[in-house]
Design brief:
258 residues; alpha+beta; Beta-Lactamase; three-stranded antiparallel β-sheet; 6 helices; 32% strand; rod-shaped; disordered N terminus
Length: 258
């Protein structure tokens, strides 16, 4: 096996004779690739015998490349059964290695693409969140988002600063009952009416509720609010969150309710 070379140096390839060797080796490799079988070719140039062996690199039934062995010299060498067996095992190992390297390269490309998509989606989500937050904070009505246990998840500026009179950081994460308790300590809160408005579904007792609240707001003004709470349910009809709206009622609307 010491007579066989797997590659030729650039200096060796510079000679015209060895350019011919490369061309013949490539032709043998193409034949092996096209036929999906081992190709053995021998040529004679200037009394020198060139022997080429092209072995397809098979992995899971597919050719991933071709390994070409080149021998230059006299006489032409015949392969024994043992050598063929060794070459078969050798090419199988190379084929497996090459296939794994190709797989790693493809996975790396996919990961890079996924990173790009993730970054795009993250930026889109951030932009959408910022837009929604801007709209949320500029709605004239007070808006409150609660979880299923009635713990405050989010509230807009109207509710926090104008109605309750506290910064959102002081309210987020607190139970709604605690917020009401703080609200009552600060001002005289009067619930004028409370009723069930709408049943979410015939199979459920989940309902939208409404109440009218008279209070002194966060800036010291006497105001009336219609407070409507909407349950947010999932496909199993389980309440996941609540959305509560505080809409101011003008005097004309409440004169019959006071």
């Amino acid at each position: 096996m010491e007579f066989w070379r797997l590659s030729l140096s650039p200096a060796t390839l510079a000679a015209q004779q060895n350019k011919t060797i490369v061309e013949e080796a490539m032709q043998t490799a193409n034949n092996a690739w096209d036929e999906n079988t081992i190709e053995l070719q021998t040529t004679t140039t200037n009394d020198s015998i060139h022997t080429y062996v092209a072995l397809p690199l098979m992995y899971n039934g597919y050719a991933t490349g071709v390994l070409v062995l080149v021998r230059i010299g006299n006489p032409a060498m015949a392969f024994s059964v043992t050598i063929w067996s060794v070459l078969t095992v050798f090419t199988s190992l190379i084929a497996s290695t090459c296939a794994n390297m190709q797989l790693i390269a493809r996975l790396q490309q996919h990961l890079e693409r996924m990173d790009e998509l993730l970054e795009q989606y993250t930026q889109q989500l951030k932009h959408s969140r910022d837009v929604l937050r801007t709209v949320f904070d500029n709605v004239p009505n007070g808006l409150v988002l609660l979880d299923a246990q009635e713990r405050l998840l989010a509230a807009n500026t109207t509710f926090c600063q104008q109605i309750i009179g506290q910064h959102p950081r002081e309210l987020v994460g607190r139970p709604y009952a605690t917020i009401w308790s703080l609200f009552r300590q600060r001002t005289d809160v009067h619930i004028a009416m409370q009723e069930t408005l709408l049943t979410v579904s015939p199979e459920s007792d989940r309902s939208v509720t409404m109440k009218q609240v008279h209070c002194t707001d966060g800036i010291g003004q006497q105001r009336w609010f219609e407070v409507t709470r909407h349950p947010i349910i999932d496909d199993t009809n389980t309440i996941m969150q609540y959305l509560e709206r505080w809409r101011e009622i003008i005097d004309m609307q409440i004169k019959n309710w006071a």
